[in-house]
Write a structure and sequence with these properties.
This protein is mainly β and 120 residues long. The protein is built from one helix and ten strands, in the order βββββββββαβ.
Length: 120
């Protein structure tokens, strides 16, 4: 069973940067498009950034130009570089398969996520 482990979160002031990492227990990234998601208190989980099946990328409008998704397939790791952070970016961040296949029920078991807190 694939395990996803997110890390790199923390407390940062508005305008700061963080880089999140998501490591998988198996070699899944070379065959699957992965994405980053977040869930703020009292809100539904939402897609933040994702690779698509064609290796393109999609970003939520709220993070375009500030967040950048990348991956290192040999290391089975996907990253999320976050810059110009805002208090509204505060959430628990998770990685999983791309949104289309997630909706089809093909996602992996969610990891524990990594908390990002942005202070104003």
């Amino acid at each position: 069973q694939v395990q996803l482990v997110e890390s790199g979160g923390g407390l940062v002031q508005a305008g700061g940067s963080l880089r999140l990492s998501c490591a998988a227990s198996g070699s899944i990234f070379s065959n699957n498009a992965m994405g980053w998601y977040r869930q703020a208190p009292g809100k539904q989980r939402e897609m933040v950034a994702t690779f698509t099946s064609g290796s393109s990328t999609n970003y939520a409008d709220s993070v375009k130009g500030r967040f950048f998704i990348s991956r290192d397939n040999p290391k089975n790791t996907v990253y999320l570089q976050m810059s110009s952070l805002k208090p509204e970016d505060t959430a628990v961040y998770y990685c999983n398969i791309d949104p289309l296949r997630l909706k089809l029920g093909l996602g992996y078991t969610w990891g524990q996520g990594t908390q990002v807190t942005v202070s104003s």
